[in-house]
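User: Could you check the structure of this?
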Amino acid sequence: MSGELVPERGRLRASHEDRDRVVERLRVAAGDGRLTSDELEERLEVALTARTYQELEAVVVDLPVAGPAWAGDLAAVSPKDMSRIVVGSGSARRDGPWVVPQRMEIESKSGSVVLDFTSAVIALPTLDIEVSVHSGALKLVVPPDVFVDVDDVAVHSGSVRNTVRLSSATPVRLRVRVTGKVHSGSITVRPPKPPRRGFWQWLTRRPRPVAALPR
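Assistant: Sure, the predicted structure tokens are below.
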């Protein structure tokens, strides 16, 4: 409505997905030893009944940022046109809420590079990666809504493996096209590992059901 004031972000109503995201963040923090069991229980109660972003942010304000950025922050993301990674005998990683650029150039000489798209901030529909791997390794960790094409990589005494199978029922959020060459190195595309069970989840785990003995 014309002339109507827009409420501050903290006063906006939170969704079920927002509450679930904060609950998972609290559980991970407890598993890492950042919260006691009493603190976890108290904060979970607040998070599950929170009505606004301000109420949700209050229970995680003293915890490190983990996972994808808030949906409301994505509009402010400005991805780079090009990002370059050069590794000698060391290693480089892109994980957590890193911003995916439009293009990447990756050079690995007996080192390793990991690109983890699990919690990446994706603002563009495509990503082109030009690689040059010599006795090194490149690993791409992709969730179900990220499609990776490695068919145009030239391989010389190395390997290129893609173990991710895209489901027709899952909409593609990002298409990654990898080109370049591999000499005595490797490129691996795999799905994320199952989420790590926190300490309190392990502590309160239920015993596995025992199969009934044949009569």
